[in-house]
Amino acid sequence: MIERKNPRTARVGFYSVAHATYWDQFPGLLDNMMVYHNDTIKLVESYGVEVIDYGMIDSSEKAYEAVAKMQGDKLDVLFTNMITYATSSVFAPIVREMNIPVVLVALQPLKALDYNKACTFMQLENDNICSVPEFTGVAIRMGKKVDDVIIGTLYDENDPSHAELSEWCEIAKVLHSLKGARMGLMGHVLEAMYDMHADPTAISSAFGVHVPLIEIDDAVACFEAVTDEEIAAKTEIIKAEFEMPDPKSDPVTRKLTDKDLYESARGAAALDRLVEKFGLSGLAYYYEGQPDTIQRRVATSFIVGNSILNAQGTPMCGEFDIKTCIAMLIMDRLNIGGSFAELHPFDFKEDFILIGHDGPHHLAIANGKPILRSLTKFHGKPGSGASVEFKLKEGPITMLGITQTASGAFKFVIGEGYSKEGPIPPTGNTNTRGFFEPNTRDYIKAWVMEGPTHHYALGIGHHAKTLKKIADVLGIESVVVKL
Predict the structure, then answer these.
(1) In 294-334, at which residue ranges do the beta strands (DSSP E only) sit?
(2) 437-483: per-residue pLDDT in tens?
(3) pLDDT digits (tens, 9 = 90+) for 210-254
(4) Which of 78, 260, 470, 471 gives 374 a disulfide partner, CB atoms 3.0 to 4.6 angstroms apart?
(5) DSSP 8-state code for residue 394
(6) Strand duo 395-404 + 410-419: pairing
């Protein structure tokens, strides 16, 4: 089993707000509130994030003290727990200074008051929504924003609010991974692909990442330094994780050769060294090289290693497409995959389109065991060797394309469809049967009219709403394609 290397985690700030006047008026109320406070923290922690607890903030003085700590704690998202009514003076200093997503969490302990026993004490325990409009209004007056308000009940795990809270923890993991990520570029754009060009400074500005520029000779040095033991270990992983069947109808394919297995294992081991040497969070590359050179040999050996690294949380993609590499990172940190994909032929008889690519894929979302085939040629580019073939798991799927507008600004193009069972071409490439509503032809027309690049990241589940929130947090335009 391929083990994940890069963790999915985040640092989430959490504090509760209240009106300090209540504590002397209603003995025992603060103690009850702290129980709810701690129970909500446990709920947030169950979503796989680190919670930084700033306690109960019930005065403006405490708010100013807390915000100084928050600014130094490298938070990814801040949860304001609307535990009862609070004046906006306890929130204003925080929302004014914090430049991360701020989410108001209003989870009532009770689903409804017991009206036969109702009292002011009980109402205050469940007054979570009372000051929400005051807080959102003050944020807007300060030229800031509340990124979301989560409304529901605390102790009902099936309440939709719990899924919303989990969603923001997932978004926090994406933001955490983007901060300072090292998204490497190696080589150059595949000649004439205008949509692949990207300015590293613009990438850094929009996503908060660094773009190391890597020489092909850096990869060559790693390839040449790989030991026999490293190659043997990778060979065993490949044999365990992939099927290697006989070829079918495509004359370009053949059963995986010993030579291609060796080259793939060596290339995968070299990539591990390259990722470690440069501290890479991801890599987009393309390099042709002259025939019979070590540069071409190395550049054409990476497909299998890329797919393994994708499953381990380090997105790798070809054709120098750093925009899609970032989309793949976002999907991976949401735990929904992130395969390198493009549009393939329609099936107008059954109303679907094949979607996949001839390069790296995310093995964690494969439907069944992925296949390795030897290809006598990589169509459209030089070289030959092992290539990965599989289809995505059946069920809902999401597409995320990152493109640029005429002004150079980035734009998310987001789509949702379905992967369904059925044969795919045995070409050594990933191909998934993608179905879109109300019909695939019109949906794909609407998709391409948004001006995406011809590549995008492909994941499982329907997550358009979450991806749009991430775009909003990053200040990037987004569109969810619908008919």
Answers:
(1) 316-317
(2) 999 999 999 999 999 999 999 999 999 999 999 999 999 999 999 99
(3) 999 999 999 999 999 999 999 999 999 999 999 999 999 999 999
(4) 260
(5) S
(6) antiparallel
